[in-house]
Each structure stands twice: as C-alpha cells, then as structure tokens.
Amino acid sequence: MRHQRLITTAIVLSLAAGLSAASAAEQQQLNPKAISIKLPDQFQWRRNEAAGNETAVLYGDPDKPGPYVLMFKWLPGHMSRPHWHPNDRMITVFKGTWWVGTGDKFDPDSTVPLPAGSYVTHFAKEVHYDGAKNEEVWLLMAGEGPATSTSASTPPPAH
After folding, report:
1. pLDDT tens digits, 35-62
2. pTM score of the predicted model
3. How far is it, in rounded angstroms, from Cα 150 to Cα 21?
4. 56 burial class (0-12, 13-18, 19+ CB within 10 angstroms)?
5. CA–CA dist 68, 55 (Å, integer)
C-alpha cells in the first residue's frame, strides 16, 4: 500500500501546482517515456447515471489487478448504499464536502461531513456508504484493482 500512497501524494502535488505546471509543460517538449501529463480538460469522464457520479482514470485500470488512481465526482443529492470493496482505497477530498457513514444500515442523517483537504482510507472488506448532499464533491482515489463494489447484503469474506 506504500506505493499507492506515494502515487496519491505525487498526484496531489501535481494537481496543486495547477496552471504554472500546465504552462511549463506546454512550453517544453517532454519525453513521453519519462513523464505523462493529463491536464484537467483532458480527463475523460465516465458518467454513471444510476449512481449519480462520474469517474476519470488517471493511472492504471481499476478493472484489472494492479494500482490505479481515479478522479471521482459525486453529483449533488446522490449517495451510495452500504457496500464493501475487496482492497483498501485511499481517498483525498478535493472539492466540496463528502459525507461518509459505516455499517449495513443506510442512514444519511448519521453520515460525517469531510471538507476539502480531508484524507480517508476505506479498509478492505468493511461496510460503508458515502456521497454528496447539497454540492458536487471531487475525490482523488487510489487503490489496488480490480476495484469492485459489493452490496452489504452480501457479507464480506472473513479477514
């Protein structure tokens, strides 16, 4: 998991550099074998209407084994239902307030607000739910694929 935290940290620093990094990249020809750059307007967002969110893959492939990094948008008024993942996920809130809860009973009123700048680890095989209430929320998420999500109605395997 250490390499995933390093990847997350590197992306956070890259995004924080913002326009100055973009300007520098545009002015120079960089070796694509040495570095890969995706500016925000180059993210390819995939919308999931039923879940009320969008994702953009920044690194790896969340559908396959191995590390991945995603930008994740929760649209206002949408929350996941209680579920679990087979692997840890490391998440940084970039924009808005993200609301999180634990346990297999869906209760949005008991969720905890996490403002921009918050860092969260969703531990493997533990039931949780999350989402956005009255504003769009952007997250940076790193994990180990495949990034599946299983309803809490199916209990996770024993640790």
Report:
1. 999 999 999 999 998 889 999 999 999 9
2. 0.78
3. 38
4. middle
5. 12
